[in-house]
Every structure is written in structure tokens, then in C-alpha cells.
Design a protein that fits this description.
heterodimer, A: alpha+beta, 434 Repressor (Amino-terminal Domain), Beta-Lactamase, 3 domains, 17 helices, 6 strands, about 50% helix, about 10% strand, flat, disordered N terminus, B: alpha/beta, Rossmann fold, 5 strands, about 40% helix
Chain lengths: ~425, ~120
């Protein structure tokens, strides 16, 4: 049934339910019975003044009859069907449901949206509970304090002949542990209740602190700020480790800015496109700093991830629609890891991120090799991957995900653990 | 002669409470705040039972347990493991712990377990 026919079907349904004759309704609406018949059987599109008169005669809310609302409802129902357990079953188009039970249809769509929202929350919480070392440490701190409070309080309450010096000692312990418990519980609640940046909660990882700070600054400094040393990390940047990381970031960004001035880079991108390898050749630069500089161009809306030889993500600038794992390892199919394993070879791949809309990206990665311990010492591998939004197209795309734990691709041969989105969770 | 309990726990206040509870009940308690020195300690003054925390600085409780179970001289010493994480229970039992106690525990629970493990 075509979308435009929805209103006619609903008018007929309402007239029959009300026990009204076609000719009577047509007369009251100022149209012929034959025209109403065509409308009701979806052979004429009804809108404007005629629709308003028919809505008044049949007691409809005019706005609810508009095609736009039905279209949104129809899309919502289709999404619900695709996402539901019956995804593999060929479902009938849900237009009849909208026509006959519009309130139920709207309720179904609302429930599906609620389910999606809860699913996202579960993914985030599961990711934290499974991989978050800070949460684990916080829970351990709270339970240890609680153990001590419980044991000490019981001694004080149940030992009638407790020596005075022991009583003083245990009271001091109790006070110390109750303070520690209160602080730990507050930090834990703040963390689990996180609605804002993690830097406010006192238990963020240093890397997260730095990334939050950069995000708040729009991920960029001017070349002048960097090269003249004006750019500094803010005083409230929580931990000493975060300040060290921020200093290292600024020093590297300053080196990049000197080697690849933004004005010249912007001109070259306009001519060559955002191809880091062509641009690196043009500037005689190593591709790694080029990837970092391109990630800072606002017009590209690009993401960037870097990793060390262990595969640990050492920098994460997100791109819209390309979720980056906050904890734990990323998807092993990311071309970032292909570059890590094949240093000094360009990797240029179109990928499709797992998810309902299968967003496509062009990712460009490069692996580097450092020898800080000399030629005989161990070599240090590193890699970076630029993430560029890619328009839909026919180019085959490598299916990837964010991390196995939240990836719905159940049959992926690269999977290392079950997904919470599958039955094997 | 009183039974000797070796307590390996880095949380000082928890250790003081456990030591008090056991000492009051007639046990002789030796406390270590970390796993280093356990082997010499066990050799010099063999305990009848070891209470071992799971998360310790340096050597973890599981590493200490593995070392104890790998040495014929100490493999038969009963070990009770303390942990704040319930999911560590299976790991501890597979590693050879005789008992497992989750924090926060009560004084009467830990005392009852120690007595039971020593057949008292």
C-alpha cells in the first residue's frame, strides 16, 4: 500500500466504525459520494480544505491525519520490525496497523525507541563493568573500607573488656575507614551517575582527562598558539599524569605545526584532497604527522586513533558515527592494526561500522617504527588511523565494529568474546 | 599450644581487626603486609593456616597461593582467601584455596571458618 493512501484508508475505517453512510459524510463535507469513494479506496489523494472538512465530520484530529505523521509512524514501525526478534521473518507492511490502531502503532514505536535507548545504556554500562579498571578499583576500595568498618565496629560493640588503648586505636581506625568509605562511595556514585565529562569525577584515566580537555577546546589550537608556546594545559587538569600527557601532546602538536603549517596544508588539501599519503609526498613529510594534522581540520570532521605496539589506543578523537571503545581493545579488523603489522605501507580502506545504519568511512592508516634503544635494542611500533566520513556508494566496504563486547556481528571470524547483543552473552 | 595463623593482608585496619579477633580466641597471629618474605616466614615458623588477601601490592594472592601449592613443604597448609570480588572465587578455588571469603565479612564468620578449617 503506497504511503500516500494512508489517510484515505483511515477515513474509511473511521466512517464504518461510526456507522455512517458514505453519501451522508460526503454531503456534510461538501463533496460528491463518488469522490469520497475514490478517496477512501486510495485512488485520490486528499489534503488541504477537503481533508479538514472530512476530519471535522468524522471527528478526527486534523494534524493526526497528515501524511507526514503517518510516514514517521510507518518508518518507526519498520525500524522496530527490522530490529526485533522477527527480523528474519518477512513482515507485512504495517500500514494496516496504523490505519486501524494508530494509538497502538504509536505506542509500539515509542516502546522500540525506549528499547534502543536502554540498549545503548546497557552497552555503556557493560563496557564499564567489564573493562573499566577505575571502576573495579573504586569498588575494591569501597568494599575494603566497608570490611574494615564492619569488623572494627563489631569489635567495639561486642567486646566488653576491651583495653582502653585498644579502644582508642579501633575508634581511630573506624573514623579513618568511615571517611575513606564516604569518599569512595561519593566518587563511585558520581562516576556511575556520569552525565558530564569524566574529569569532574576524580577517577578518570589520565588519557580521558586529556581527551576531554581537547574535546572542550574543539581539538585544535592555532599554529601560533602551538609554536609560540602559548598553548598550555589548564590548571584544573586533574592528575599529574594527565598534565604530563597534555605536555607531550602539545609538544608533538607544536612539532607537527612547524613541519606542516596549517595555511599551506589547507591549500594543498584543496588541491589534492584529504589524502595523507599524497600530501605527505607533497610536503616531504612522514605520514604519521600528516595524519595528525589532517585530523585537526574542522572541515573534514575526521576522527583519529593511534595505538602502540600492544594495540592499546593511545589517542582517540572520535568521528560522528564511529564509536571508539572507552576501555579494552578495539575491533581487531580495524585497518589501524593492519598498519601496525605492516609498518611503512599505506593502508586505505572503506569500512562499514556495525549498527542499524551501517555508516561508511574511508580510513587511512600508517604504521611507524622507532628505535629509541638503538639499532640493537627493541624497536617500538606505533600506528595511526585517520577516519573520514564516506558517502554511501557501491564500493565494497570492510565490515567492522567498535569492540567485540558491543558488536552485533555474531559470526565475525575475528570475534574474541561474545557480544552482549547476542544470545551468547 | 596455640595454633599459628599467618595473615597476609595489605589493608592495615582490616589486618588489625582480624588479628584482634583471632588473638582473643587463643590463636597466635603473624601479620605480613605483602607477599615478599612469605617463603622464609613459612619455613622459619610454619603456620597451621594462612589467611591470604587476593589483591596485594607486588605479588598477588594468586601468585603466592601458586607458590605455596607448588612447594611440597607448604602444599598441605590450609589457605583461606579474602577478596572483594565475587568473580574471583572460582579462580581462587581452581588455584588451590581451601576456603574463600568475600569482603565485607563478619567477625563471627571469619572466626568460625578458621576454627572449622583447623578442626576445632
Amino acid at each position: 500500500m503506497p504511503l500516500a493512501s494512508l489517510t484515505g484508508s483511515r477515513l474509511r475505517e473511521r466512517r464504518l466504525t461510526a456507522g455512517l453512510r458514505q453519501s451522508d459524510v460526503a454531503a456534510q463535507a461538501g463533496i460528491s459520494a463518488s469522490y469520497l469513494n475514490l478517496i477512501e479506496h486510495d485512488r485520490r489523494r486528499v489534503r488541504g480544505e477537503v481533508l479538514e472538512r472530512l476530519a471535522d465530520v468524522l471527528g478526527f484530529d486534523r494534524a493526526a491525519l497528515a501524511d507526514g505523521q503517518d510516514a514517521a509512524l510507518l518508518d518507526g514501525l519498520r525500524n522496530a520490525a527490522v530490529r526485533g526478534v522477527a527480523a528474519a521473518v518477512e513482515l507485512e507492511p504495517p500500514t494496516d496497523l496504523i490505519n486501524r490502531f494508530p494509538a497502538w502503532a504509536a505506542h509500539l514505536v515509542a516502546l522500540d525507541r525506549r528499547a534502543q535507548s536502554l540498549e545503548r545504556a546497557v552497552e555503556a554500562l557493560n563496557d564499564r563493568m567489564t573493562h573499566d579498571p577505575h571502576l573495579s578499583q573504586s569498588l575494591h576500595e569501597v568494599l575494603s573500607s566497608l570490611s574494615s568498618v564492619r569488623a572494627t565496629a563489631a569489635i567495639l560493640a561486642q567486646t566488653e573488656d576491651l583495653a582502653p588503648e585498644m579502644s582508642v586505636r579501633f575508634h581511630q581506625n573506624l573514623h579513618h575507614d568511615s571517611e575513606r568509605l564516604a569518599a569512595g562511595a561519593e566518587a563511585l556514585v558520581a562516576y556511575l551517575d556520569a552525565g558530564s565529562g569524566v574529569e569532574d569525577q576524580g577517577i578518570a584515566a589520565p588519557q580521558e582527562e586529556v581527551e576531554d580537555w581537547l574535546s572542550a577546546k574543539g581539538w585544535s589550537f592555532t599554529d601560533e598558539e602551538l609554536t609560540e608556546g602559548v598553548a598550555t594545559y589548564p590548571a584544573p587538569l586533574g592528575s599529574a599524569a594527565a598534565r604530563t600527557l597534555a605536555q607531550a601532546y602539545l609538544a608533538q602538536a607544536a612539532d607537527d605545526a612547524r613541519a606542516l603549517p596549517m595555511a599551506a596544508l589547507t591549500q594543498a588539501v584543496a588541491k589534492l584532497g584529504p589524502d595523507p599519503f599524497a600530501l605527505a609526498e607533497r610536503f616531504g613529510s612522514d605520514p604519521l604527522p600528516m595524519l595528525r594534522r589532517l585530523a585537526l581540520l574542522p572541515e573534514l570532521a575526521a576522527g583519529l586513533v593511534t595505538c602502540d605496539a600492544s594495540g592499546t589506543l593511545t589517542f582517540r578523537k572520535p568521528a560522528d558515527g564511529f564509536p571508539l571503545p572507552r576501555f579494552g581493545a578495539a575491533c581487531p579488523l580495524w585497518p589501524l592494526y593492519a598498519a601496525l603489522g605492516r609498518p611503512h605501507q599505506p593502508v586505505d580502506t572503506v569500512v562499514a561500522m556495525a549498527g542499524p545504519d551501517a555508516r561508511r568511512f574511508r580510513v587511512l592508516a600508517w604504521g611507524g617504527l622507532l628505535r629509541p634503544f638503538g639499532l640493537r635494542g627493541p624497536e617500538l611500533h606505533t600506528a595511526a588511523m585517520l577516519i573520514l566520513p564516506e558517502a554511501a556508494g557501491s564500493t565494497p566496504a570492510l565490515p567492522i565494529g567498535s569492540s567485540c563486547r558491543v558488536c552485533p556481528r555474531t559470526t565475525c571470524p575475528a570475534r574474541r568474546e561474545p557480544s552482549i547483543l547476542s544470545d551468547g552473552s | 599450644m596455640s595454633h599459628h595463623v599467618l595473615l597476609i593482608e595489605d589493608e592495615q585496619n582490616i589486618a588489625e581487626a582480624i588479628e584482634f579477633i583471632l588473638t582473643r580466641d587463643g590463636f597466635r597471629v603473624t601479620h605480613l603486609g605483602a607477599g615478599h618474605g612469605v617463603a622464609r616466614m613459612v619455613q622459619d615458623d610454619r603456620p597451621d593456616l594462612i589467611i591470604l588477601d587476593h589483591m596485594l601490592p607486588g605479588l598477588s594472592g594468586l601468585e603466592i597461593l601458586a607458590a605455596l601449592r607448588g612447594d611440597p613443604a607448604t602444599t598441605s597448609i590450609p589457605v583461606m582467601m579474602l577478596t572483594a570480588r565475587g568473580r574471583d572465587r572460582d579462580v581462587a578455588e581452581r588455584a588451590g584455596a581451601d576456603r574463600f571469603m568475600s569482603k565485607p565479612f563478619s567477625n563471627s564468620e571469619i572466626l568460625a571458618e578458621v576454627r572449622a578449617m583447623l578442626g576445632l
